[in-house]
Structures are given as structure tokens and as C-alpha cells.
Write a structure and sequence with these properties.
With about 190 residues, the chain is of the alpha/beta class. Belongs to the sulfur carrier protein TusA family. Pfam families: Rhodanese, TusA. InterPro entries: Rhodanese-like_dom, Rhodanese-like_dom_sf, TusA-like, TusA-like_sf.
Length: about 190
């Protein structure tokens, strides 16, 4: 059992709120301190792991107690950063126009499988955020890839991961499927 300096209650919140609250709360800690995030969102583990890695903090693990996931992060040193490099963004409106004009766009959906199965843009590649690092070889590093999630947080983290792996043209779609009004499909891969 990990001993935390501060506990953050993010129970009942869904993406992107556990990350938003974590970003705010971690600022209260000193380097090396441990933050416990209590969440019920199943996607929070992958989200927090990716965010910690991209922002210079250390993801220590997760303990499960019933429906509650207890995540532990160690705050990084003075060189940790929220955005090591900026990721280009496209508004959902501009993205929708591109989708309507060009069916050959490369679109990566990084939401969890349950979200993806509920509704996704036809023809997208689905790789949940927690799998992006190990499955990025399924994508072409030279393609222009539009990355989408529910709100734009996970897609931003995926873009940072992919950029570090040598992807040249990754673009974050803001705000994401939360406000998508275009054509969708239901079901699995």
C-alpha cells in the first residue's frame, strides 16, 4: 500500500475531469510527493499513466477497492512539464469539414473500447490510449494523423506519445466525439 501526501476525490467523474483535477492538485505538491487519485472511471488508469509519462511525473500504480480505482502518482522534479512540446490542434468544426470533403483521412480514435463501440466515425483506426505506445507500429509515421477522443485530453496525450516515437504530423481534434454531429457507426472493430 502506497502512502500518499494528498488524496484527490475524482469518484463519479468521467473523462476528462480526473485528469483536469489531477493537473490542478499536483501543483500543490513538492517534487517527490505522492498524490492518490480516487476514481471510478475505468479509463482513468490509461489516462493517468499517459499523462504522467508525458508530463514528467511517475505513475506508481493502481489499487482497486470495489468500484474505486486508487491511482498513485509521484510528482516529478522541477524539469517536469505539462506540455513538453506543443501539438497542433484542429477545431471540431474544421475537422468535420475535412471529413466531409476527404474520405481518405487518417483518423485515430483513442477512446476506451466501450466508448468506441457506442459510436465512432466510420473508417477510423481504434487504439485505446493505454495501447498507443505499443501499437503505434500499426500506423504510418509519415501520414497526417488526426487523433480524437471524447474531449481532446486523451488525444493530446496520445499525440505526445506518438511524437516522441517519431510521428511527424499528428493533429489533436478539439473537443472530440463529445460534440461530434457527423456520421457514426456502432459496434466493434
Amino acid at each position: 500500500m502506497v502512502k500518499a501526501n494528498i488524496v484527490l476525490d475524482a469518484k463519479g467523474l468521467s473523462c476528462p475531469m480526473p485528469i483536469v483535477k489531477t493537473k490542478k492538485k499536483i501543483k500543490e505538491l513538492k517534487a517527490g510527493d505522492i498524490l492518490e487519485i480516487q476514481a471510478t472511471d475505468k479509463g482513468s488508469a490509461a489516462d493517468l499513466q499517459a499523462w504522467a509519462k508525458s508530463s514528467g511525473h511517475e505513475y506508481l500504480g493502481t489499487e482497486t477497492e470495489g468500484e474505486v480505482l486508487r491511482h498513485f502518482l509521484r510528482k516529478g522534479g522541477e524539469h517536469s512539464s505539462e506540455n513538453a512540446s506543443s501539438i497542433p490542434e484542429i477545431s471540431l468544426e474544421a475537422f468535420t469539414q475535412k471529413v466531409d470533403r476527404d474520405e481518405s483521412l487518417h483518423i485515430l480514435d483513442v477512446r476506451e473500447i466501450e466508448e468506441y463501440e457506442e459510436a465512432h466515425i466510420p473508417g477510423v483506426v481504434h487504439i485505446p490510449l493505454g495501447e498507443v505506445e505499443k501499437r503505434s507500429n500499426e500506423l504510418n509515421k509519415n501520414d497526417e494523423i488526426y487523433i480524437i477522443c471524447h474531449s481532446g485530453r486523451r488525444s493530446e496525450m496520445a499525440a505526445h506519445t506518438m511524437k516522441k516515437q517519431g510521428f511527424k504530423k499528428v493533429i489533436n481534434v478539439i473537443p472530440g466525439m463529445r460534440d461530434w454531429t457527423g456520421q457514426t457507426e456502432k459496434g466493434g472493430r
